[in-house]
Amino acid sequence: MKNLKLLLAVPLVAGVLYGCNKDEVKDVPENAPVEETNTEKQKNENAAKSTLFNFTEFSLDVDYSATESYDVDYDNERTGMEAELEDDRKNEKLYGDEAFTKLEPLFKQLTFDSTTSNDEVIDQVISVFNIADDYQSIEVEVKFEDGTEKEFQRIK
């Protein structure tokens, strides 16, 4: 009886774990920045590298109301890239390659860095992502290539 429970539990756990990875990007561009360990950073510090974006993580949360929001999550680490876009107003939920395909041209338009002011970052995000004026709050969290993490927000 004990072996039967174990035999049934293994496929169940494997299925659950497989289902959790639906936002993983399979077709990762070669020059996308990747979060690195300190040793890797030191090795690559002097090497010139061409990257897609100046960040390895990007999170955007726009709240229009208690039931309507626009969310973007992008994460590129050594273990892989993940992308997700959810737009309640358009009833759109994209994950993995499909989300990255839509987000990549938008990310390429973002020119801010860790020294850019809060208002400039928010204004740029509103423009690039075409955020409607009736939002209640916007929050952007970014981890830049150099490891700096910043949070930018605006509440109406």
The assigned structural class equals alpha+beta
Instruction: Note the overall shape.
Output: globular
Fraction of residues in helices?
25-40%
C-alpha Rg (nearest Å): 19 Å
The number of distinct structural domains comes to 1
Oligomeric state of this protein: single chain
Q: Low-confidence parts, pLDDT < 50 over ≥5 residues?
A: 42-50
| Percent range for β-strand residues | 25-35%
The profile of the biggest β sheet is:
7 strands, antiparallel
List the helices and strands in order.
HEHEEEEHHEE
**Discrete helix count:** 4
The pLDDT mean sits at 81
Work out the number of β strands: 7
Q: Give the N-to-C terminal Cα separation.
A: 60 Å
Defining key terms:
156 residues; alpha+beta; seven-stranded antiparallel sheet; 4 helices; 7 strands; 30% strand
Produce a short descriptive summary.
This protein has 156 residues and is of the alpha+beta class.
